[in-house]
Specification:
Low-confidence stretches: none
CATH topology of the largest domain: FAD/NAD(P)-binding domain
Helix content: 25-40%
Distance between the termini: 56 Å
CATH superfamily of the largest domain: FAD/NAD(P)-binding domain
Number of domains: 3
Strand content: 15-25%
Shape: globular
Largest sheet: 7 strands, mixed
Mean pLDDT: 96
Oligomer: single chain
Structural class: alpha/beta
CATH architecture of the largest domain: 3-Layer(bba) Sandwich
């Protein structure tokens, strides 16, 4: 049977673009279908603009700290409209780069929404496409039905397009998106209240990081409401009112819905392939990104496994190498570093302490908690926290956790060491770069405590 393409990719986000370009480099005939902007969530309305907003918030911190370093700073104010215009120009530039990359790689970009109509076939508008292999790389989008009335609230997509910031805002959710935006908004002058179900924000992260993240949010002036996830959202004049479990209502001019994301699989027609999706619409895959349907694969947030852009990119390239290259391979998701860009940021690689104990490891736990030199000089209160989890039997470093300035940059480098199987003795033999914050990771000589699996 002949096909129009060797690979048809649904979704031109980071993962879909990476997979299609790598497949084309192997000589495959490739098309990628996209109904929105090329670049996907990360480039257009996620990681990139969010990080740009974090930079804006950091400049606010720097301006407040500057007098302590001898600078005389006059009146300052943040203008969201100016930032939004610059952000729009940058995402437009990046979208153009992605389009050129696809064209330069020989990948056909088909603009429109795709619907699968059977094995090896999809329809885009009036055009029917056939392909030997089909890749679902459609990503995810904010959940709009988690709480009655939550559809009236803004999501991160809309927040990043605001031309003016509200004086007060509520953030609903305790995950990394909620926590990041609560932190940024507060530093940009917004009076923020954060509501979430758990006792601490950032469920799934190490407990010591979660406690310190909550303290950092409160230090930024954010009113935390643990165990107080709203049960409903109501329109209230020009604003919205959050209904809590006790029946009380709290009014806010702006409410951010950060209650989670869901795979973009509704309406794709995947039922025509015999696929049974997960509860949230996730596409089931094995370790090699294969679905139960022959010739059909899925990567990235559409699978709802490790919902991180670099994971989607790695999965897409590995799949293309496996299908069209000479060395089939899969992506190891056991040691994936990640970051939460609140201020100060969090970064982590490896299991939490609870996870390591549950897996049967006896641990030597090394910790450092201090005010960095930059803070002590001008009397700042921001702290850095570092944690190493070391397997007591093998001396292997199982995990690195950090909260503090430059944590994502530091942990990214240390992730290489963990993937190479580094031991604590090798950390100890490494000469420090002084004066730096990062040097503390090679100067922690005595464990703060020892933990046994029975304590999990």
């Amino acid at each position: 049977m002949s096909f129009d393409f060797d690979l048809l990719v649904l979704g031109a986000g980071s993962g879909g673009v990476a997979a299609s370009r790598r497949a084309a480099a192997h000589g495959a005939r490739v098309a990628v279908v996209e109904g929105s902007r090329v670049g996907g969530t990360c480039v257009i309305r996620g990681c990139v603009p969010k990080k740009l907003l974090m930079y804006a918030a950091q400049y606010g911190d720097a301006l407040r700290e500057a007098p302590g370093y001898g600078w005389l700073v006059g009146e300052t104010r943040f203008e969201m409209a100016r930032w939004a215009a610059s952000k729009a120009a940058e995402t437009q530039r990046l979208e153009g780069v992605y389009r050129k990359l696809l064209a330069g790689s020989g990948v056909e970009l088909i603009e429109g929404w795709a619907r699968v109509v059977g094995p090896h076939r999809a329809v885009v508008g009036e055009r029917t496409l056939s392909a030997q292999h089909l890749l679902i790389a459609t990503g995810a989008s904010p959940v709009l039905d988690s709480i009655p009335g939550i559809e009236h609230c803004a999501t991160s997509d809309g927040l990043l397009d605001l031309s003016a910031l509200p004086e007060r805002a509520a953030v609903v959710g305790g995950g990394y998106i909620a926590t990041e935006f609560a932190s940024m908004l507060a530093r940009l002058g917004v009076e923020v209240s954060q509501f979430y179900r758990d006792r601490l924000p950032l469920r799934g992260f190490d407990e010591d990081l979660r406690r310190r993240a909550a303290a950092a949010l409160q230090a930024a002036g954010i009113a935390l409401h643990p165990g107080a996830a709203p049960v409903g959202v109501h329109t209230d004049g020009p604003g919205l009112a959050l209904e809590l479990a006790d029946g009380s209502r709290l009014a806010f001019p702006f409410v951010l819905n950060a209650t989670g994301r869901r795979p973009n699989t509704h309406g794709l027609g995947l039922e025509t392939l015999g696929l049974t999706l997960g509860a949230k619409g996730a596409v089931p895959v094995d370790g090699a990104c294969r679905t139960p349907a022959p010739g059909v694969y899925a990567i990235g947030d559409a699978t709802d496994r490790k919902n991180l852009t670099p994971v989607a990119i790695a999965e897409g390239r590995a799949l293309a190498d496996s299908l069209f290259g000479s060395t089939p391979r899969a992506v190891d998701l056991s040691l994936v570093a990640s970051a939460v860009f609140l201020l100060p940021p969090i970064a982590t690689v490896g299991p939490t302490e609870a996870e390591a104990l549950a897996a049967g490891h006896a641990l030597n736990v090394f910790e450092a908690d201090f005010r960095p030199m930059r803070q002590t000089f001008f009397g700042g209160a921001e702290r850095s926290y570092m944690k190493l989890l070391v397997d007591a039997a093998s001396d292997r470093v199982l995990a690195v956790h950090m909260l503090g300035a430059d944590a994502p940059e530091i942990v990214q480098s240390l992730a290489v060491a963990l993937n190479c199987g580094a031991t604590k003795a090798q950390f100890d033999r490494t000469i420090a770069v002084h004066p730096t914050v990062a040097e503390e990771f090679v100067l922690m000589r005595e464990p703060a405590r020892r933990a046994l699996p029975s304590q999990a």
